[in-house]
Amino acid sequence: MSQALPSSAPDPLIRLIGVTKRFGSGEAAFQALKGVDLDIMAGDFMAVMGPSGSGKSTTMNILGCLDVPTTGSFLFRGHHIESLGRDQRALLRRRYLGFVFQGFNLLSRTTALENVELPLLYRGDDKRARRTAALAALDQVGLVDWASHTPSELSGGQQQRVAIARAIVTHPDVLLADEPTGNLDSERSLEIMELLTRLNRDRGITVLMVTHEAEMAAFARTVVHFRDGLVERVTTGALAA
Amino acid sequence: MTDAAAPPPPGRASTARLVGTTVLLALRAIRRHLLRSILTVLGIVIGVFAVVTIVTLGKGATESTRQQISSLGANILTVLPGQANGRGGGGQTPPPFKFEDLDAIRGQVAGVTAVAPQAQSSATAVHNAANWATTVNGTTDAYLDAQDWKIEDGRRFTDAEEQAGKSVCLMGSTVKQNLYPNEAPVGSTLRLGNVSCTVIGTLATRGAGGFGQDNDDTVLMPIKAVQRRFTGNRDIRAIIVSADPAYDSADVQESIAKLLRERRNITGGKLDDFTIFDSRQIADTLSGITNILTGIVGAVAAISLLVGGIGIMNIMLVSVTERTREIGIRLAIGAVAREVMLQFLVEAVVLSCLGGLIGLVLALIASLGLTAALNVPFVFDPWTNLMAFLFSGLIGVVFGYFPARRAAALNPIDALRYE
Fold first, then answer.
1. Would an 8 Å CB–CB cutoff place A213 in contact with chain B?
2. Which residue of B has its CA nearest to A65?
3. Predicted local confidence at residue B208, as pLDDT
4. Which of A32, A40, A79, B118 could form an SS bridge with A21, CB 3.0 to 4.6 Å?
5. Does B129 touch chain A (CB under 8 A)?
6. Among residues A226, A138, A218, which one has the least CA distance to residue A181?
7. Cβ atoms of residues B119 and B218 within 8 Å
């Protein structure tokens, strides 16, 4: 799909224009992104695919405000945020973004409820508000009965659902999932994908998901293929994957 | 969601809320690593414990010295012939005091409550088959007032006995224990060397003096009896003066010195041929020595606090490395660098303060036990305890800062990837 938009279309939630990323300098320099243009519409479910070294992880890091582009523009809700400082990006993540990782990344020896409460702690919610919101988020992922269990007492699929609950507890606009099913068997993977689909459909959360598996990408509405630091192609709807 | 008018960057988190949150996070982290937390603060615990225990014991020892010296009688001036330092005067023995000197002090110096002469001799006391080597102190009734002796049994000297130099005696409790294990001494006859005397009373126990001597190992007799039967002269070896607490003992001392200079013809640049010791000055000197020793030992103990601080820094650095992933997670979900830094700093401070508290409690227990065992009074000094606690907190700040800054400087992407 081309980046040229019909004039009647709404503005994209996220817009990357000519984004490049260079790591290192001199001889050892590595050009990870060579000019990425990408529009992500609000409410989209986008799968990001591509071989390793293609630039998909770098792009995700930039989209997740964990990293900044070397050149190019990054617009979020129409605002330029490519030159924001470290702390401003952190506040942006806190307010608008949720993260789900391949390795779950829950705090060990900490209950599911406390893990889910963590982002609210940084937002400064009081104890009662944190508890209510965290239990609601755990309910959304079907684990409200497991609130007092620590990660070591939960299966991989359950841990990933706790991680998703932690990502959505702040009602983010965008959920960034980095190979969320990479550590799970196919049955659990399907559960996670169904959960992400439901959150996308029912709560309108924009989901950006890196995956290697076409089977998982099939859940997405849009699939972006990366190759050699560039967007190779974008497919939509039934044509996806 | 498509409403582009909503501005993306929200405001900053409030610092007050942040501290409350980070204390909570720190307590959670400490609870999660309980054993390691205990081991981490062990250095601080031992440091605070050592410093506070030593200082408390030192203060107890100082207080004990004061009490023992004041047990000799509050504010006693002892006047001796000769000079305190060196001999001077070309080897000529300074003249002894006379009874007239005592009368003059009593009559002309303000702030004097009792004046007593002293003449001493050592003698072997014999009763029945037992004998005991002791000191015979020749003096007057005023001596009992000046040094605050209490009569346990019997009575004091009468004027008539003093004037006549009668062979009567008052007995210290050490002598009594050794010679009269099973009978009341009052009324019996005691032989002191070649002299027989009648025991008219016994003295209440006073215990050891400030220099470790046994105050109770003595027999008191009228001074005239001692002069006639033991020393063979009319010399007064010392004058004991007790000063009124309402007067400055230094003033009283100076008045006595002035009077004695006059009476002993010391004029111009001649050196005094007598010395006046002030019990309060001695007490102050001894306390000063104890304070210096306490300070030195306390400083050595304070080094263990420093070592404890380095221990905290070490463990916090390990902790930051080990929890790199956790820091990555916190950063990813939106913690700002300041919050991560504050979390680790607060964790270090909370840890070291907990260590300080534990150390204070242990020091309190040990001080109570040791002061009881060493027979010195327990003096709780809130200032020492507060300073030790604040210092342990300060150590947390100082040694927690570097690890905390390292944690805050982590790149979230690398931190999340850290294995």
1. no
2. B332
3. 62
4. A32
5. no
6. A218
7. no
